[in-house]
Amino acid sequence: MLLNSLKRIKNNADDEIGTLDNPGNWLKYLFGTGESKAGVRITPRTSILHPDVYACVNILADDIAKFPIKLFKYKENSTEQIDNSLSRLIQHKINPYMTSFTWKKLQVTRMSTYGNSYNRIIFDKDGNVVALQPLLPEATNTNIDPNTGRVWYSTTINGKYYELHYEEVLHFKNLSSDGIVGQTPISVIRENAGTNAAATQFTAKFYKNGGAPFGLIKAPTLLGPEGKQVVREEWEKVNSNQSIGVLDAGLDYTPITMKMIDAQFIETMKWNRKQIAAIYKVPLHKLNELDKATFSNIEHQSIEYVKTTLQPLVTNIEQELNDKLLFERQKKQGLYFKFNMDSELRGDMKTRAEYYEIMQRVGAFSANDVLKREDMPGIGEIGDEHYGNLNLVPLSAMKEYQLGKVGKGQKPMKGGEENEPSKEILEHEKSQ
Length: 432
Fold this sequence. Notes:
By secondary structure, this protein is an alpha+beta fold. The chain folds into 3 domains: 1-212 and 260-346, no CATH class; 215-256; 395-431, no CATH class. Helices cover 45% and strands 16% of the residues. The chain has helices spanning 2-12, 26-30, 44-47, 51-65, 85-91, 100-113, 186-208, 225-241, 260-263, 265-280, 295-325, 328-332, 349-361, 367-373, 395-407, 423-431; strands spanning 69-75, 78-81, 93-95, 98-99, 116-123, 129-135, 140-144, 151-157, 160-165, 169-173, 215-218, 252-255, 335-339. The strands form 5 sheets. Strands 2-1-13 form a 3-stranded antiparallel beta sheet. A 3-stranded antiparallel beta sheet has the order 6-5-10. Helix 4 (51-65) crosses helix 6 (100-113).
Protein backbone atom coordinates (compact mmCIF):
# COMPACT_ATOMS: atom_id res chain seq x y z
CA MET A 1 0.00 0.00 0.00
CA LEU A 2 2.89 2.36 0.76
CA LEU A 3 4.34 1.86 -2.73
CA ASN A 4 0.94 2.53 -4.24
CA SER A 5 0.71 5.67 -2.14
CA LEU A 6 4.12 6.80 -3.31
CA LYS A 7 3.15 6.15 -6.91
CA ARG A 8 0.01 8.22 -6.50
CA ILE A 9 1.93 10.99 -4.76
CA LYS A 10 4.57 11.05 -7.46
CA ASN A 11 1.84 11.65 -10.01
CA ASN A 12 0.59 14.53 -7.87
CA ALA A 13 3.90 16.29 -7.26
CA ASP A 14 6.64 15.18 -9.63
CA ASP A 15 8.75 18.26 -8.95
CA GLU A 16 8.75 17.76 -5.19
CA ILE A 17 9.76 14.13 -4.88
CA GLY A 18 13.15 12.46 -4.98
CA THR A 19 13.91 8.75 -4.96
CA LEU A 20 14.01 6.14 -2.20
CA ASP A 21 17.80 6.54 -2.06
CA ASN A 22 17.51 10.34 -2.02
CA PRO A 23 14.06 11.04 -0.60
CA GLY A 24 14.10 14.81 -1.06
CA ASN A 25 10.67 16.16 -0.16
CA TRP A 26 8.49 13.09 -0.71
CA LEU A 27 8.28 12.36 3.02
CA LYS A 28 7.10 15.92 3.59
CA TYR A 29 4.47 15.52 0.91
CA LEU A 30 3.38 12.10 2.16
CA PHE A 31 2.96 13.28 5.75
CA GLY A 32 1.71 16.79 4.92
CA THR A 33 4.70 19.02 5.78
CA GLY A 34 4.43 21.42 2.84
CA GLU A 35 6.39 24.36 4.23
CA SER A 36 6.90 27.34 1.93
CA LYS A 37 10.14 29.29 1.65
CA ALA A 38 8.56 32.01 3.77
CA GLY A 39 8.48 29.48 6.63
CA VAL A 40 4.70 28.98 6.57
CA ARG A 41 3.25 25.48 6.28
CA ILE A 42 0.82 25.24 3.34
CA THR A 43 -0.84 21.87 2.62
CA PRO A 44 -4.07 20.97 0.79
CA ARG A 45 -5.87 20.81 4.15
CA THR A 46 -4.49 24.10 5.52
CA SER A 47 -4.51 25.99 2.20
CA ILE A 48 -8.24 26.65 2.48
CA LEU A 49 -7.47 28.81 5.53
CA HIS A 50 -5.56 31.24 3.31
CA PRO A 51 -7.92 34.15 2.46
CA ASP A 52 -7.19 34.30 -1.28
CA VAL A 53 -7.28 30.53 -1.75
CA TYR A 54 -10.47 30.35 0.31
CA ALA A 55 -12.07 33.10 -1.79
CA CYS A 56 -11.17 31.46 -5.14
CA VAL A 57 -12.26 27.98 -4.07
CA ASN A 58 -15.47 29.26 -2.50
CA ILE A 59 -16.36 31.22 -5.66
CA LEU A 60 -15.80 28.19 -7.90
CA ALA A 61 -17.61 25.81 -5.56
CA ASP A 62 -20.64 28.06 -5.15
CA ASP A 63 -20.92 28.81 -8.86
CA ILE A 64 -20.89 25.10 -9.76
CA ALA A 65 -23.08 23.99 -6.85
CA LYS A 66 -25.93 26.32 -7.82
CA PHE A 67 -26.33 24.63 -11.23
CA PRO A 68 -28.94 21.83 -11.07
CA ILE A 69 -27.97 18.48 -12.62
CA LYS A 70 -30.78 16.79 -14.53
CA LEU A 71 -31.16 13.49 -16.34
CA PHE A 72 -32.25 13.75 -19.97
CA LYS A 73 -33.08 11.35 -22.78
CA TYR A 74 -32.39 12.13 -26.42
CA LYS A 75 -35.18 10.80 -28.63
CA GLU A 76 -36.18 11.54 -32.22
CA ASN A 77 -34.40 14.88 -32.55
CA SER A 78 -35.74 16.06 -29.20
CA THR A 79 -34.90 15.73 -25.53
CA GLU A 80 -37.08 14.97 -22.56
CA GLN A 81 -36.31 15.21 -18.87
CA ILE A 82 -36.33 11.88 -17.03
CA ASP A 83 -37.81 11.64 -13.55
CA ASN A 84 -36.68 8.50 -11.72
CA SER A 85 -34.93 7.55 -8.49
CA LEU A 86 -31.46 8.25 -9.91
CA SER A 87 -32.35 11.71 -11.20
CA ARG A 88 -34.02 12.61 -7.89
CA LEU A 89 -30.94 11.43 -6.00
CA ILE A 90 -28.64 13.70 -8.05
CA GLN A 91 -31.01 16.65 -7.97
CA HIS A 92 -32.02 16.59 -4.32
CA LYS A 93 -30.47 14.20 -1.80
CA ILE A 94 -27.10 12.55 -2.47
CA ASN A 95 -27.05 10.66 0.81
CA PRO A 96 -28.91 10.86 4.16
CA TYR A 97 -26.76 13.76 5.40
CA MET A 98 -25.89 15.72 2.24
CA THR A 99 -28.01 17.72 -0.20
CA SER A 100 -27.13 18.06 -3.86
CA PHE A 101 -25.81 21.62 -3.36
CA THR A 102 -23.56 20.59 -0.46
CA TRP A 103 -22.25 17.58 -2.37
CA LYS A 104 -21.42 19.54 -5.52
CA LYS A 105 -19.67 22.24 -3.48
CA LEU A 106 -17.61 19.58 -1.70
CA GLN A 107 -16.51 18.02 -5.00
CA VAL A 108 -15.22 21.31 -6.42
CA THR A 109 -13.56 22.21 -3.10
CA ARG A 110 -11.60 18.97 -3.01
CA MET A 111 -10.70 19.16 -6.70
CA SER A 112 -9.40 22.70 -6.13
CA THR A 113 -7.30 21.79 -3.10
CA TYR A 114 -6.37 18.10 -3.26
CA GLY A 115 -6.68 17.78 -7.03
CA ASN A 116 -8.98 14.74 -6.65
CA SER A 117 -12.43 14.10 -5.28
CA TYR A 118 -13.56 10.52 -4.62
CA ASN A 119 -17.06 9.15 -3.98
CA ARG A 120 -18.06 5.58 -3.27
CA ILE A 121 -21.16 4.53 -5.22
CA ILE A 122 -23.61 2.66 -2.98
CA PHE A 123 -25.78 0.08 -4.80
CA ASP A 124 -28.82 -1.84 -3.60
CA LYS A 125 -29.31 -5.58 -4.17
CA ASP A 126 -30.73 -4.93 -7.64
CA GLY A 127 -27.73 -2.86 -8.75
CA ASN A 128 -29.48 0.51 -8.52
CA VAL A 129 -27.57 3.53 -7.18
CA VAL A 130 -29.04 4.58 -3.83
CA ALA A 131 -26.38 6.98 -2.47
CA LEU A 132 -22.94 8.53 -3.03
CA GLN A 133 -20.47 8.47 -0.14
CA PRO A 134 -17.63 11.05 -0.29
CA LEU A 135 -14.23 9.56 0.55
CA LEU A 136 -11.37 11.39 2.22
CA PRO A 137 -8.86 12.24 -0.53
CA GLU A 138 -5.89 11.91 1.86
CA ALA A 139 -7.05 8.38 2.75
CA THR A 140 -7.80 7.23 -0.80
CA ASN A 141 -5.29 5.91 -3.34
CA THR A 142 -5.62 5.35 -7.08
CA ASN A 143 -3.90 2.13 -8.14
CA ILE A 144 -3.17 0.26 -11.38
CA ASP A 145 -3.17 -3.52 -11.53
CA PRO A 146 0.22 -4.49 -13.08
CA ASN A 147 -1.27 -7.62 -14.69
CA THR A 148 -4.47 -6.27 -16.24
CA GLY A 149 -3.79 -2.51 -16.35
CA ARG A 150 -7.14 -1.93 -14.63
CA VAL A 151 -7.57 1.04 -12.30
CA TRP A 152 -8.81 0.34 -8.79
CA TYR A 153 -9.03 2.25 -5.54
CA SER A 154 -8.01 1.63 -1.96
CA THR A 155 -9.38 3.69 0.90
CA THR A 156 -10.02 3.78 4.62
CA ILE A 157 -13.56 4.36 5.91
CA ASN A 158 -14.09 4.69 9.67
CA GLY A 159 -10.78 2.97 10.31
CA LYS A 160 -11.53 0.02 8.01
CA TYR A 161 -9.56 -0.68 4.82
CA TYR A 162 -11.46 -1.18 1.54
CA GLU A 163 -10.51 -2.08 -2.01
CA LEU A 164 -12.97 -0.82 -4.63
CA HIS A 165 -13.38 -1.50 -8.33
CA TYR A 166 -13.13 1.30 -10.90
CA GLU A 167 -16.92 1.20 -11.43
CA GLU A 168 -17.56 1.67 -7.70
CA VAL A 169 -15.90 5.09 -7.37
CA LEU A 170 -16.79 8.46 -8.85
CA HIS A 171 -13.43 10.15 -9.36
CA PHE A 172 -13.38 13.83 -10.32
CA LYS A 173 -9.88 14.91 -11.31
CA ASN A 174 -8.21 18.29 -11.61
CA LEU A 175 -5.33 18.91 -14.04
CA SER A 176 -3.62 15.56 -14.60
CA SER A 177 -0.35 14.55 -16.25
CA ASP A 178 -1.41 10.91 -16.77
CA GLY A 179 -5.21 11.04 -16.95
CA ILE A 180 -5.48 8.80 -13.88
CA VAL A 181 -4.71 11.06 -10.89
CA GLY A 182 -5.25 14.80 -10.62
CA GLN A 183 -2.53 17.16 -9.44
CA THR A 184 -3.07 19.47 -6.49
CA PRO A 185 -2.76 23.18 -7.36
CA ILE A 186 -1.45 23.84 -3.84
CA SER A 187 2.06 22.78 -4.86
CA VAL A 188 1.98 25.58 -7.44
CA ILE A 189 0.55 28.31 -5.24
CA ARG A 190 2.36 27.30 -2.04
CA GLU A 191 4.97 30.06 -2.28
CA ASN A 192 2.39 32.77 -3.08
CA ALA A 193 0.12 31.62 -0.28
CA GLY A 194 3.08 31.25 2.09
CA THR A 195 4.32 34.78 1.37
CA ASN A 196 0.88 36.25 1.99
CA ALA A 197 0.44 34.23 5.17
CA ALA A 198 3.86 35.31 6.45
CA ALA A 199 3.02 38.95 5.68
CA THR A 200 -0.27 38.61 7.55
CA GLN A 201 1.49 37.07 10.56
CA PHE A 202 4.09 39.86 10.55
CA THR A 203 1.40 42.55 10.38
CA ALA A 204 -0.53 40.94 13.25
CA LYS A 205 2.62 40.78 15.37
CA PHE A 206 3.48 44.36 14.45
CA TYR A 207 0.15 45.65 15.73
CA LYS A 208 0.28 43.34 18.73
CA ASN A 209 3.45 45.17 19.74
CA GLY A 210 1.56 48.45 19.58
CA GLY A 211 2.98 49.39 16.19
CA ALA A 212 6.52 49.47 17.54
CA PRO A 213 9.08 47.83 15.23
CA PHE A 214 11.71 45.44 16.49
CA GLY A 215 15.02 47.06 17.37
CA LEU A 216 18.01 47.46 19.66
CA ILE A 217 18.64 49.73 22.67
CA LYS A 218 22.28 50.77 22.93
CA ALA A 219 23.77 51.60 26.30
CA PRO A 220 27.01 53.61 26.77
CA THR A 221 28.28 51.05 29.29
CA LEU A 222 28.09 47.32 29.77
CA LEU A 223 24.92 46.08 31.42
CA GLY A 224 24.63 42.88 33.33
CA PRO A 225 21.82 40.37 32.76
CA GLU A 226 19.68 42.03 35.42
CA GLY A 227 20.25 45.50 33.95
CA LYS A 228 19.32 44.34 30.44
CA GLN A 229 16.14 42.73 31.76
CA VAL A 230 15.14 45.91 33.57
CA VAL A 231 15.65 48.03 30.42
CA ARG A 232 13.70 45.55 28.32
CA GLU A 233 10.77 45.39 30.76
CA GLU A 234 10.60 49.18 31.09
CA TRP A 235 10.63 49.61 27.31
CA GLU A 236 7.81 47.07 26.88
CA LYS A 237 5.78 48.75 29.62
CA VAL A 238 6.08 52.13 27.95
CA ASN A 239 5.27 50.97 24.43
CA SER A 240 2.38 48.74 25.38
CA ASN A 241 0.17 51.74 26.17
CA GLN A 242 2.04 54.80 24.87
CA SER A 243 2.90 55.97 21.37
CA ILE A 244 6.15 57.69 22.49
CA GLY A 245 8.95 55.92 24.28
CA VAL A 246 11.23 57.77 26.72
CA LEU A 247 14.86 56.68 26.99
CA ASP A 248 17.17 57.47 29.87
CA ALA A 249 20.35 59.40 29.26
CA GLY A 250 22.86 57.49 27.15
CA LEU A 251 20.38 54.96 25.79
CA ASP A 252 19.77 54.93 22.04
CA TYR A 253 17.09 52.97 20.13
CA THR A 254 17.77 51.59 16.61
CA PRO A 255 15.07 49.70 14.67
CA ILE A 256 16.29 46.54 12.90
CA THR A 257 13.26 45.79 10.68
CA MET A 258 12.32 47.46 7.42
CA LYS A 259 9.47 49.91 7.33
CA MET A 260 6.06 48.70 6.17
CA ILE A 261 6.21 50.96 3.12
CA ASP A 262 9.68 49.65 2.22
CA ALA A 263 8.43 46.09 2.36
CA GLN A 264 5.54 47.07 0.03
CA PHE A 265 3.15 44.74 1.78
CA ILE A 266 0.04 45.85 -0.07
CA GLU A 267 1.66 45.53 -3.49
CA THR A 268 3.17 42.16 -2.63
CA MET A 269 -0.11 40.75 -1.36
CA LYS A 270 -1.98 42.07 -4.41
CA TRP A 271 0.56 40.48 -6.75
CA ASN A 272 0.24 37.13 -4.97
CA ARG A 273 -3.55 37.42 -5.08
CA LYS A 274 -3.40 37.90 -8.84
CA GLN A 275 -1.18 34.84 -9.22
CA ILE A 276 -3.53 32.68 -7.15
CA ALA A 277 -6.58 33.97 -9.06
CA ALA A 278 -4.84 33.19 -12.37
CA ILE A 279 -4.13 29.60 -11.29
CA TYR A 280 -7.80 29.09 -10.40
CA LYS A 281 -8.97 31.07 -13.48
CA VAL A 282 -11.09 33.39 -11.33
CA PRO A 283 -11.56 37.00 -12.58
CA LEU A 284 -10.09 39.60 -10.24
CA HIS A 285 -13.35 41.53 -9.96
CA LYS A 286 -14.81 38.49 -8.15
CA LEU A 287 -12.09 39.00 -5.52
CA ASN A 288 -13.00 42.70 -5.18
CA GLU A 289 -9.90 43.77 -7.10
CA LEU A 290 -11.52 46.68 -8.97
CA ASP A 291 -8.50 48.94 -9.54
CA LYS A 292 -8.69 48.69 -13.35
CA ALA A 293 -12.25 47.46 -13.69
CA THR A 294 -14.92 49.05 -15.85
CA PHE A 295 -18.48 47.97 -16.55
CA SER A 296 -17.62 46.77 -20.06
CA ASN A 297 -14.57 44.70 -19.19
CA ILE A 298 -16.27 43.16 -16.12
CA GLU A 299 -19.15 42.07 -18.37
CA HIS A 300 -16.67 40.55 -20.84
CA GLN A 301 -14.74 38.84 -18.04
CA SER A 302 -17.97 37.35 -16.67
CA ILE A 303 -18.76 35.81 -20.04
CA GLU A 304 -15.22 34.45 -20.38
CA TYR A 305 -15.41 33.10 -16.82
CA VAL A 306 -18.45 30.98 -17.69
CA LYS A 307 -16.91 29.74 -20.95
CA THR A 308 -13.32 29.06 -19.86
CA THR A 309 -13.63 28.31 -16.12
CA LEU A 310 -17.07 26.94 -15.30
CA GLN A 311 -17.81 25.06 -18.52
CA PRO A 312 -14.74 22.75 -18.27
CA LEU A 313 -15.61 21.90 -14.65
CA VAL A 314 -19.22 21.20 -15.60
CA THR A 315 -18.18 18.97 -18.52
CA ASN A 316 -15.73 17.10 -16.27
CA ILE A 317 -18.46 16.26 -13.74
CA GLU A 318 -21.07 15.43 -16.39
CA GLN A 319 -18.89 12.89 -18.17
CA GLU A 320 -17.89 11.12 -14.95
CA LEU A 321 -21.56 10.85 -13.93
CA ASN A 322 -22.50 9.47 -17.35
CA ASP A 323 -19.64 6.96 -17.23
CA LYS A 324 -20.21 5.58 -13.72
CA LEU A 325 -23.90 6.05 -12.88
CA LEU A 326 -25.55 4.93 -16.12
CA PHE A 327 -25.70 1.35 -17.41
CA GLU A 328 -24.63 0.67 -20.98
CA ARG A 329 -28.22 -0.02 -22.00
CA GLN A 330 -29.24 3.37 -20.60
CA LYS A 331 -26.49 5.10 -22.56
CA LYS A 332 -27.63 3.34 -25.74
CA GLN A 333 -31.16 4.55 -25.03
CA GLY A 334 -29.87 8.13 -25.09
CA LEU A 335 -29.81 8.95 -21.35
CA TYR A 336 -27.30 11.52 -20.12
CA PHE A 337 -26.71 13.93 -17.24
CA LYS A 338 -26.47 17.63 -17.94
CA PHE A 339 -26.04 20.78 -15.83
CA ASN A 340 -28.62 23.48 -16.36
CA MET A 341 -26.50 26.63 -16.59
CA ASP A 342 -29.50 28.85 -17.31
CA SER A 343 -29.41 29.78 -13.64
CA GLU A 344 -26.53 32.12 -14.54
CA LEU A 345 -29.26 34.44 -15.85
CA ARG A 346 -31.33 34.38 -12.66
CA GLY A 347 -29.77 37.56 -11.30
CA ASP A 348 -30.40 39.58 -14.48
CA MET A 349 -34.11 40.03 -15.22
CA LYS A 350 -33.51 42.06 -18.39
CA THR A 351 -31.12 39.56 -19.94
CA ARG A 352 -33.39 36.66 -19.04
CA ALA A 353 -36.43 38.36 -20.58
CA GLU A 354 -34.51 39.11 -23.79
CA TYR A 355 -33.34 35.51 -23.98
CA TYR A 356 -36.90 34.17 -23.65
CA GLU A 357 -38.18 36.66 -26.22
CA ILE A 358 -35.61 35.59 -28.80
CA MET A 359 -36.24 31.88 -28.16
CA GLN A 360 -40.00 32.41 -28.62
CA ARG A 361 -39.48 34.48 -31.76
CA VAL A 362 -37.53 31.69 -33.48
CA GLY A 363 -40.06 29.08 -32.38
CA ALA A 364 -37.80 27.25 -29.92
CA PHE A 365 -39.84 28.03 -26.77
CA SER A 366 -43.57 28.08 -26.19
CA ALA A 367 -45.23 30.22 -23.51
CA ASN A 368 -45.45 27.18 -21.25
CA ASP A 369 -41.72 26.47 -21.75
CA VAL A 370 -40.90 29.95 -20.47
CA LEU A 371 -43.25 29.64 -17.51
CA LYS A 372 -41.79 26.24 -16.61
CA ARG A 373 -38.27 27.67 -16.54
CA GLU A 374 -39.51 30.38 -14.18
CA ASP A 375 -41.18 27.79 -11.91
CA MET A 376 -44.60 29.21 -12.73
CA PRO A 377 -47.81 27.30 -13.65
CA GLY A 378 -48.63 26.86 -17.33
CA ILE A 379 -51.63 28.39 -19.14
CA GLY A 380 -53.06 25.19 -20.62
CA GLU A 381 -52.95 23.80 -24.14
CA ILE A 382 -52.89 27.27 -25.71
CA GLY A 383 -49.50 27.82 -24.04
CA ASP A 384 -47.99 24.86 -25.92
CA GLU A 385 -48.23 26.63 -29.27
CA HIS A 386 -44.93 27.62 -30.89
CA TYR A 387 -44.75 30.82 -32.90
CA GLY A 388 -42.33 32.05 -35.53
CA ASN A 389 -41.46 35.24 -37.39
CA LEU A 390 -43.10 35.49 -40.83
CA ASN A 391 -40.32 37.82 -42.00
CA LEU A 392 -37.98 34.85 -42.08
CA VAL A 393 -38.53 32.10 -44.67
CA PRO A 394 -36.36 29.16 -45.75
CA LEU A 395 -34.22 29.64 -48.86
CA SER A 396 -36.06 26.73 -50.48
CA ALA A 397 -39.35 28.63 -50.08
CA MET A 398 -37.82 31.69 -51.73
CA LYS A 399 -36.78 29.55 -54.69
CA GLU A 400 -40.27 28.09 -55.02
CA TYR A 401 -41.72 31.58 -54.84
CA GLN A 402 -39.50 32.80 -57.67
CA LEU A 403 -40.24 29.75 -59.81
CA GLY A 404 -43.93 30.33 -59.22
CA LYS A 405 -43.57 33.81 -60.66
CA VAL A 406 -41.97 32.38 -63.81
CA GLY A 407 -44.90 30.03 -64.19
CA LYS A 408 -47.25 33.02 -64.12
CA GLY A 409 -45.35 34.75 -66.89
CA GLN A 410 -43.06 36.90 -64.73
CA LYS A 411 -39.31 37.05 -64.98
CA PRO A 412 -37.58 36.22 -61.65
CA MET A 413 -36.05 39.25 -59.95
CA LYS A 414 -32.33 39.70 -59.42
CA GLY A 415 -30.79 41.62 -56.59
CA GLY A 416 -31.66 45.33 -56.80
CA GLU A 417 -34.04 44.90 -59.78
CA GLU A 418 -37.73 45.67 -59.95
CA ASN A 419 -40.05 43.04 -61.34
CA GLU A 420 -40.49 43.32 -65.14
CA PRO A 421 -43.10 41.62 -67.35
CA SER A 422 -41.90 38.47 -69.12
CA LYS A 423 -41.45 38.21 -72.92
CA GLU A 424 -44.75 36.35 -73.30
CA ILE A 425 -46.67 39.11 -71.51
CA LEU A 426 -45.06 41.81 -73.66
CA GLU A 427 -45.92 40.01 -76.94
CA HIS A 428 -49.50 39.48 -75.75
CA GLU A 429 -49.88 43.18 -74.91
CA LYS A 430 -48.37 44.15 -78.35
CA SER A 431 -50.82 41.98 -80.22
CA GLN A 432 -53.68 43.69 -78.46
